[in-house]
């Protein structure tokens, strides 16, 4: 039994740190893709900012026509401030505070500062599709 515990303990080598800048917010939002407000989500590569849910809203991205991703609309690499809201430019999310750019397909920071510690990716939210409705939650 002790050997099993040691094996299980040693399996996880990388510690996953919780982002200290973004608090946990519980929400459940339904997006009806038939509504004109969500036209940008009808095609692959389309993205949209939803100002409800999350801390500063959501960034919803149509990855390939059928799969959708949702991210927190706050920059994950500094405390929340007036300039922390991310904007969408094509397939990128941009933070106006320091010009950080994130991939809407992966959530990863694409242009980290030279001497910065390991940057946080964007905060991911769950997305489930039911017919023409996206259900985004945390």
Short description:
The chain is mostly beta strands. It is built from 1 helix and 9 strands.
Task: Please describe what this structure looks like.
The structure is a single chain. With 138 residues, the protein is mainly beta. The chain has a single domain, classed as 3-layer Sandwich (Rieske Iron-sulfur Protein), CATH 2.102.10.10. It contains one helix and nine strands. It has a six-stranded antiparallel beta sheet with strand order 1-9-8-4-3-2, with no helix packed on it. Strand 8 and strand 9 (133-137) form a beta hairpin. The chain is globular.
Helices and strands in order:
Blueprint: H1 2-11, E1 28-32, E2 47-50, E3 58-62, E4 68-72, E5 86-89, E6 92-95, E7 101-103, E8 124-130, E9 133-137
Antiparallel strand pairs: 1-9, 2-3, 3-4, 4-8, 5-6, 6-7, 8-9
Task: Please name the CATH topology.
Answer: Rieske Iron-sulfur Protein
Main beta sheet strand tally, sense and closure: 6 strands, antiparallel
**How would you name the oligomeric state of the polypeptide chains in this document?**
single chain
Instruction: Provide the CATH superfamily.
Output: Rieske [2Fe-2S] iron-sulphur domain
Q: How confident overall, as mean pLDDT?
A: 89
Strand order of the largest sheet: 1-9-8-4-3-2
Residues in helices, as a percent range: under 10%
Rg on CA atoms, Å: 17 Å
Question: Pairing-aware structural class of the strands and helices?
Answer: mainly beta
- CATH architecture assignment: 3-layer Sandwich
In whole angstroms, how far apart are the ends? 36 Å
